[in-house]
Amino acid sequence: MLDKDYYEILGVSRDADTHTIKKSYRKLAMQYHPDKNPNDKVAEEKFKELGEAYAVLSNPQKRRQYDQFGRAGMRGGGGFSGSGGSGYSDPFDIFRDVFGGGFGDIFGMGGGSRSRSTVRRGSDLQIRLKLTLEEIAQGVTKKIKIKKYVKCDSCKGSGANPGTSTTTCPMCHGSGEVAYRQGFFTVSQTCQRCGGEGKIIDRPCTTCNGSGRAHGESMIPVEIPAGVAEGQYLTIRHAGNVGPRGGPTGDVIVLIEEKQHEYFERHGDDIIYNLNIGFPQLALGDEVEVPTLTGKATIHIAPGTQSGKILRMRGKGIPHLNAHGSGDQLIRVLVWTPTKLSAGEKELLKQLAKQSNMYPKKDDKSFFERMKEAIL
Predict the structure, then answer these.
(1) Which residue, 19, 22, 293, 301, is the most exposed by fewest CB within 10 angstroms?
(2) Max CA-CA distance within the chain?
(3) pLDDT at position 300
(4) CB of 247 within 8 A of CB of 152?
(5) Packing angle of the helix pair 41-57, 91-99 (nearest 10 deg)
(6) In 193-285, at which residue ranges do the beta strands (DSSP E only) sit?
(7) In the chain, where does the domain assigned CATH 1.10.287.110 lie?
(8) What angle do CA 111, 115, 120 make, to 5 degrees?
(9) Cβ neighbours of residue 192 closer than 8 Å, sequence gap 6 or more
(10) For residue 59, what pLDDT is reported?
């Protein structure tokens, strides 16, 4: 499933300037911040989407890339997974940058800080998907089976043995951090007792050894938009490995590869086909059938066509990614020379060879004379 448009997420037009984008993000981020919407998963997900969209649209280079290719053309989709996207490891990093750091008072928290307990996210998975030019030209939905970590059935992902529960870490009291003084400063670091999770499992699940996950597999649909190219990425959100002990699920990164085609070479959104035909067809003209990405078509060879001439079939190439129109199919006309001739065929060719019209016209002027005329 492909993700929503970044401009739509931020509620701005595609020609919005940087100030408008930042203003809209500030307003929506305040509205959906988790501290203002405790235990609201929908608001939490919306807040992450806002941070992801702002991270791309506030960066001129990433915005240009997104405007040209959409998410399909962006490595890792611009997300927070560390797969080549926004450059932020956490949507709260962006929020702090925009609001200047101390945002605790914004929500009436009196200078207190939000819990720093760590919930580890599941890792991303990367798969390679080979497509034919026909599939790329039309767009296609593929179903892919992947092996990944899933929630443990015994403990439902908690990591605790069935019938037991987790307890608050006695060292950090559930915050996931411990603080100590160093001179005039107070330094915080991840709690070593609970690993930053803020809770302790006294009796780990015997099935998953307390990890909260097990080996499994799933079938995921991948919608490929028309016009993708080799080396581009698609990101399938929340389809990767589940995080340890109830942590959020990672993503699946789909790397596009192209299968070599029997007839066509791809050059951008154009495709090239080499048409080998006989000398009589070039000299006299002919109607010739050629393959296309959607079937067959007939083209006209004009009398006297020279070998190497390029004929163009407009709109018969690859569709432009996230844009209207398509590339062209270019047909390179090449003369085919027979390798075996009968005695009769040789005699006919010898008779033709005596005709001066069978040869290129000679230019009587020397190369230097032609150069002199061109310069003067």
Answers:
(1) 19
(2) 105
(3) 96
(4) no
(5) 70
(6) 199-200, 213-224, 233-236, 252-258, 264-267, 270-278
(7) 1-116
(8) 150
(9) 171, 178
(10) 87
- The pLDDT assigned to 81 comes to 37
The pLDDT, as a whole number, for residue 344 is 93
Q: What is the pLDDT of residue 187?
A: 77
Buried b (16+ CB within 10 A) or exposed e, 185-200: eeeeebbeebbbbbbb
In whole angstroms, give the CA distance from residue 47 to residue 95.
Answer: 10
Instruction: Specify the pLDDT at position 105.
Output: 41
Domain over 118-154+210-259 is classified CATH 2.60.260.20: yes
pLDDT profile of the chain (376 residues), mean per 10: 75 88 88 80 87 88 78 49 42 57 42 53 93 96 95 92 89 86 73 85 92 94 94 91 90 94 96 95 95 95 94 96 92 94 92 86 65 59
User: Who contacts 84 (Cβ-Cβ below 8 Å, separation ≥6)?
Assistant: 74, 75, 76, 233
Which SS3 state, helix, strand or coil, does residue 266 take? strand
The pLDDT value recorded for residue 66 is 80
Residue range(s) occupied by CATH 2.60.260.20 in the chain: 118-154+210-259, 264-375
The amino acid at residue 108 is G
DSSP 8-class letter at 317: S
Q: Which fold has domain 1-116?
A: Helix Hairpins (1.10.287)
Question: One-letter amino acid identity for 77?
Answer: G
Residue 285 Cα distances to 15, 288, 304, 329, angstroms:
51, 10, 7, 20
User: Alpha-carbon distance 187 to 141, whole Å?
Assistant: 51
Say if CB 249 and CB 242 are below 8 A apart. Answer: yes
Q: Please choose, from the candidates 338, 362, 360, the residue with its C-alpha nearest in 3D space to the C-alpha of residue 348.
A: 338
Domain 264-375 = CATH 2.60.260.20 = yes
**What pLDDT sits at residue 101?**
46
Exposure on the CB side of residue 64, measured as CA atoms within 13 A: 2
